[in-house]
């Protein structure tokens, strides 16, 4: 997403490399954010729903209709409307939700921690399982375990996540009663603690409400494990290919000749070098969990951004849809850039080229 | 006797295909394809995937013969609602007393339609944008690739959701939305391929003969990018199926009573605990089909990607 086209070599530049790199990054971010605004604005304009009617209702008098029409700035040329839209969006003003009658930005601020908590649990599970699985598959390349990891991963890519969620609820909740049902917490625990961070696992643990903590854990276990499986499939696959690449290098042969223990060669020498590109992969799959969370949250009645988005969609609440789309796009871009920066910071070979 | 003749003819064909000195362009091309097929045939998962995809196509073509009941008309609402799977109803019946197996069979048509149309719309767009950007370079490249980046900046499902919300729910709009979100990776790939092709000598030769840029791009650059883009599209098909099913599940794709698998899962959700088969069966269909496409794509990549062969 932020790959930089190779400039003609030999062009002497007076500026230090990092300034050029930073400038390019900044311009990429600016152009991408502008594009995000433009796309959401255009989507909002092609809606067949009349934006005035959705504010005033269809029984409003013509004079009310005209007043709101002017208030919304619909009489002005498109580029001016876009300017107003962008100006408001930059200050975090996406308008009011038709559904909750509150500013969209405050709705989003309330829903976001729930999504963040879910995605974080998912990425932790995915990383903790995915990396060892990928390493193991690479070490035993072509053997049974390699095939098993591969098939397990392809199954994760292939199953619709909302269906897996329903099946999980059917078996683990309804049949065996191992986990709690849909929702974030049982109503009886909801007021046992005060919400500070919005992350319930953190809030309950910090306030020592262990009964509530256990309840939160039993609610998040199933959706978190599902998202974890989704990211694990990707992380394991990439770990395997990075490890295969490293294990073929000459320094591994050298280490073997020196008599370094095999576990040390694999887990210390090779994995440490594979870790740099892996950071990028993990950041990217974290971003993809945002996407996965939309469908997962619908199935698990999880009060996060995904559920907010789908609820708004089903009620034709266009401002809320565009606001959350824009926000998810921004987080996505942010994580992409972060992964790029981390890559530069962590890999001395890339760093020295700056 | 005849059997021996046939065997002999087969041997001849095989030798003709595997000849080290092909006499014609046709022979060389067929030989290449045959070698790729031989390599692919050794890949068990890939063959399984191919089998699943072929089965999907056959089921879609012969849906009318395979399905024992009508997919839209239900049976007796008093006695045939929500029946568990049995020999009469292989996958049970739903709340409108319709046979789920028949609906799943007919649903394969919807799935193939989505996958096919998205591929037909998104592939040329991606190819055109990518080759144009790569061929001209300079500001054309910068502008086109920035636009591509902007589309890549949204998670696919989210952008598709926003488009469907704007266009209104329905299978056609879902297809358009998925196509709009699918082309950027193809443009990226086509651009990268074009960059390696555009300075080739045969392109210079055509240019010196006075061919226009449009002709060079369509006639000489696009065909060379085509194979890698097509492989990429095949790899994406499972993702397209899952996105379409997700849209259907959220009620934004195919509308009832159309037998779309995602929408069928959403309908079965209400009875999940007491009548598990209503939501489970269409989900299994999605799972098997997209697993098939993934196996197929994985096998193709192993055979055709020179990096993976080492």
List the helices and strands and how they pair.
The complex is a heterodimer of chains A (354) and B (310).
Chain A: H1 17-46, H2 51-56, H3 62-71, H4 78-90, H5 104-139, H6 144-158, H7 161-175, H8 200-206, H9 210-247, H10 250-258, H11 262-300, H12 305-314, H13 318-346, H14 348-352
Chain B: H1 2-18, H2 25-41, H3 44-61, H4 63-66, H5 100-136, H6 138-152, H7 156-167, H8 171-197, H9 201-208, H10 213-249, H11 261-268, H12 277-304
Q: Secondary-structure element sequence of chain A?
A: HHHHHHHHHHHHHH
The largest sheet of chain B, given as strand count, sense and whether it forms a barrel, is: none
Order of helices and strands of chain B: HHHHHHHHHHHH
CATH architecture of the largest domain in chain B: Orthogonal Bundle
| Major beta-sheet overview of chain A | none
Low-confidence stretches of chain B: none
Structural account:
- The complex is a heterodimer of chains A (354) and B (310).
- Chain A is mostly helical and 354 residues long.
- Chain A has 2 domains: 17-90, no CATH class; 114-306 and 337-351, MetI-like (MetI-like fold, Orthogonal Bundle).
- Chain A has 14 helices and no strands.
- Chain A has helices at residues 17-46, 51-56, 62-71, 78-90, 104-139, 144-158, 161-175, 200-206, 210-247, 250-258, 262-300, 305-314, 318-346, 348-352.
- Chain A starts with 16 loop residues before the first helix and ends with a helix.
- The model of chain A is unreliable at 1-11 (pLDDT under 50).
- Chain B is mostly helical and 310 residues long.
- Chain B has 2 domains: 1-42, no CATH class; 53-308, Orthogonal Bundle (MetI-like fold), CATH 1.10.3720.10.
- Helices cover 74% and strands 0% of the residues of chain B.
- Chain B has 12 helices and no strands.
- Chain B has helices at residues 2-18, 25-41, 44-61, 63-66, 100-136, 138-152, 156-167, 171-197, 201-208, 213-249, 261-268, 277-304.
- In chain B, helix 5 (100-136) runs parallel beside helix 8 (171-197) and helix 8 packs antiparallel against helix 10.
- Chain B starts with a helix and ends in a 6-residue tail after the last helix.
- The model of chain B has no long low-confidence stretch (mean pLDDT 86).
- The interface between A and B is large, with 52 and 47 residues.
